[in-house]
């Protein structure tokens, strides 16, 4: 439909290109930049999620990432999308509908007073690793992995979702196909593009991605972090120049907390370590109330961060602005994961390394003997999958207090309750522990 004859609509309900193809059944959730509706595809009755993304940069990132990940295992499937930049309407991405997520699974297990068995944990972990591996192999760095972004089907299939903060690392080209077989039904349903169309679109998307992203993470950070959309080859080492203010604080890697702008996909592996620990212990591992408190929570468990365990850390932009007193007896990850098998704890340990170079990749972990030792991963259909509503009822709002601060704005006054003393120094602050 041409823009001349169309009337702009601010609501998904007033957009004929969508309402002639989907019946909108109701809103299922809202995120920071999006409203998500349950819909029925009129052609065949398929239930879908219609994600209306209000922020243009997030929309471009989500579409770009999901296009690169078509057919990837354990990654949410994008069926089609509606985006017309000239018309300045919100993008609407049509996704497979997934009624649950890992946050709901954790809340539900907690409500029942149970625990996730080692065999169940192995199946969930295998699925998360497979999804993250697919992202990294396709050159997509997610940057916002957390339990609520790992969506789950009624049958127990887990899919990495919400690519609104992702970045492409690989220079995509049509010389080779994507590493995954494309689903022919999906191709028919989606806006099939020719190579020339795709390259034109990619150029347009890159141009559009050159937004300034001036937020810095730590309140003391004085650097202006600009995601400069530098696309390099996939490497495990830091690439590009990115903003450090990404992701939800509890799952944010130390290099990001210290303001790095040249990090790589290993930031996702740190998040994964936090997620796996939360899944098996049923409580968030590092629930910081500010970025300064976040680092304090981490070092209380893992010990001080220094040149020995993270060579080069003293060059991170904010490293010298905040100093923490020496932690004589860090509690260690074992203490955070009581009664869990040592092999499981070891998987978490391989992810939660200060030095990104020492963090295991998803591909390495998938080959770990842990997954082929007894107890074996349970079958997917043996996993217990609550709906989000069941889990919400069960949590009774108990996590809301945590969640609010987990993603809230950073504030220099929020040092966190476990800190005893804050002293101003000529470079920034010194934090001492009780
Ligand atoms: P944002 O990018 O703004 O954070 P989200 O992707 O987190 O938005 O979506 C908001 C909410 O919508 C989620 O918490 C989830 O409950 C729901 N949701 C998102 N995607 C789907 C989907 N594919 N199927 C079912 N529900 C979804």
CATH topology type:
Transferase(Phosphotransferase), domain 1
Strand content: 5-15%
The major sheet is characterized as: 5 strands, antiparallel
Bound molecules: adenosine-5'-diphosphate
Number of domains: 1
Protein name: Protein kinase domain-containing protein
Domain Protein kinase: 22-371
Catalytic activity: [DNA-directed RNA polymerase] + ATP = phospho-[DNA-directed RNA polymerase] + ADP + H(+); L-seryl-[protein] + ATP = O-phospho-L-seryl-[protein] + ADP + H(+); L-threonyl-[protein] + ATP = O-phospho-L-threonyl-[protein] + ADP + H(+)
Pfam family, one: Pkinase
Overall description:
The structure is a single chain. The protein contains 14 helices and 13 strands. By secondary structure, the chain is α+β, with helices and mostly antiparallel strands. The protein has a single domain, classed as Transferase(Phosphotransferase) domain 1 (Transferase(Phosphotransferase), domain 1). A five-stranded antiparallel β-sheet has the order 1-2-3-5-4. It starts with 15 loop residues before the first helix and ends with a strand. About 17% of the residues have low confidence. The site of adenosine-5'-diphosphate (ADP) has 20 residues, from strand 1, strand 2 and strand 3. One of its GO terms (molecular function) is RNA polymerase II CTD heptapeptide repeat kinase activity. Keywords: ATP-binding, Kinase, Nucleotide-binding, Serine/threonine-protein kinase, Transferase. Pfam families: Pkinase. This is Protein kinase domain-containing protein.
